[in-house]
UniProtKB/TrEMBL annotation:
InterPro entries: Bact_Sigma-Reg, PPM-type-like_dom_sf, PPM-type_phosphatase-like_dom. It comes from Actinacidiphila rubida. The keyword Phosphoprotein does not apply. Gene3D superfamilies: PPM-type phosphatase domain (3.60.40.10). Residues 172-387 form the PPM-type phosphatase domain. Keywords: Hydrolase. GO terms for molecular function: phosphatase activity. This is Serine phosphatase RsbU, regulator of sigma subunit.
Length: 390
């Protein structure tokens, strides 16, 4: 196999829509392969879809009960021997700093059923890692990989919201983050954002009022204002004030946005929080689930010149925090029963052994079981943070 920097140079020199072809030709030149394909995770994080296949005939691979899904969930290479074909199919996670993008699958001859040697797995994983970085860059200039993510058509509001997000997961030694929105193809007001520096992690969880384009536009305005304040180096209270004034100036209190703003100090685990509305925080510590009670302040844009005061808490290594919008705990069953806080606490406890990247999807699946079939009355957001500390 070419040295990693040689592969990376070829990827950088390729046109954005050709980077997978570069990886495929690199693998084919070094090894006798039967097939190489790239599958992207769809917006609901439940299916993998092959890049380059026509949407009408595209094969949908479940992330739950398939070999590629096992590699995607565990974020580790997984291989399966096919005795009838005398071949082995190797599935490798394509991820960037914890953000799970998809799976690179390579089929090789394996008449003896011995599986791939460790050095080959390492070489193929290097290709998958290099491909992941280039896919993120290529998304600015081509729709090839974004189109492969959609199992159905997005609403315009959902298109706006997904383009606003930083990713669906990320990790650093101090923490691991995962988040998911539902209904994935028709979300309109819920959103999240994060950004990290050497010693700080900023998180926001947003729940804009309204439906469709109006809700998406409101959330875009608020998130852009919050980012503007954060990137200007403003304190958390000033970031909230700036977003509050931006939303109020545009809508004069007729529309507003509920939000949680958090700033983590990575060396100590100290957290500043502004609770400006309905999203709630739950904590799983030493096996006990509890909702963190905060002083509720006014949603962003409800009134003019609102003053926001941060509250403080400290997270400890091993803590799991969950940030959940009202679309989860206010969801109704077909019989009109609300998804209770007790049911939510049970769901949090049931998923305690899952990694943070898989928890939001699992909790939302439990919610769908309660809500039943049919369109959702409100969109729902779950974000999970596992805190390791320094």
């Amino acid at each position: 196999m070419d040295r990693p920097w040689t592969v990376e140079r070829r990827l950088r020199e390729a046109a954005p829509h050709e980077i997978f072809d570069v990886i495929r030709s690199t693998i084919e030149r070094r090894h006798e392969v039967l097939a190489v394909r790239l599958m992207m995770a769809d917006y609901s994080s439940t299916r993998l879809q092959t890049v380059g296949e026509p949407s009408a005939t595209r094969t949908l691979v479940s992330v739950y009960d398939t070999a590629p899904g096992r590699a995607y969930g565990a974020q580790e290479p997984h291989w399966v021997h096919d005795a009838s074909a005398a071949a082995v199919e190797v599935h490798l996670p394509v991820s960037v700093r914890g953000d799970r993008l998809g799976i690179l699958s390579v089929t090789l001859p394996d008449p003896e059923g011995e599986g791939p040697p460790p050095e080959l797995l390492a070489e193929l994983q290097e290709c998958a890692d290099a491909l992941g970085h280039e896919v993120l860059v290529a998304d600015r200039d081509t729709d090839l990989f974004l189109r492969a993510r959609r199992a159905e058509r997005l609403t315009l509001a959902a298109e706006m919201q997904w383009q606003l997000l930083p990713g669906r997961s990320c990790s650093r030694p101090e923490y691991t983050l995962g988040a998911q929105l539902e209904p994935a193809y028709a979300v309109f007001g819920d959103s999240f954002d994060w950004s990290a520096s050497a010693d700080e992690l900023h998180l926001t969880v947003n729940n804009g009022m309204g439906e469709g384009i109006d809700a998406a536009l409101l959330t875009n305005l608020a998130v852009s204002a919050l980012r503007n304040g954060r990137r200007a180096g403003l304190e958390l209270s000033d970031q909230a004030y700036l977003a509050d004034q931006a939303v109020f100036g545009q809508h004069r209190g007729e529309q507003y946005l509920a939000a949680l703003l958090l700033r983590f100090h990575l060396p100590t685990g100290e957290v500043e929080i502004i609770d400006a509305g309905s999203p709630r925080i739950w904590r799983l510590r030493d096996g006990a689930v509890e909702m963190i009670e905060l002083e509720a302040q006014m949603p962003l844009g409800m009134f003019e010149d609102t003053v926001y005061e941060p509250q403080r808490l400290t997270v400890a290594p091993g803590d799991r925090l969950l940030f959940i919008s009202d679309g989860v705990y206010d969801a109704l069953s077909p019989a009109g029963e609300k998804y209770s806080l007790r049911a939510l606490a049970r769901s949090i406890n049931d998923t305690r052994l899952l990694p943070a990247t898989q928890v939001p999807r699992a909790i939302l699946e439990a919610l769908l079981g309660h809500r039943g079939p049919g369109p959702a009355a409100d969109d729902a957001l779950v974000m999970c943070l596992d805190w390791n500390g320094r």
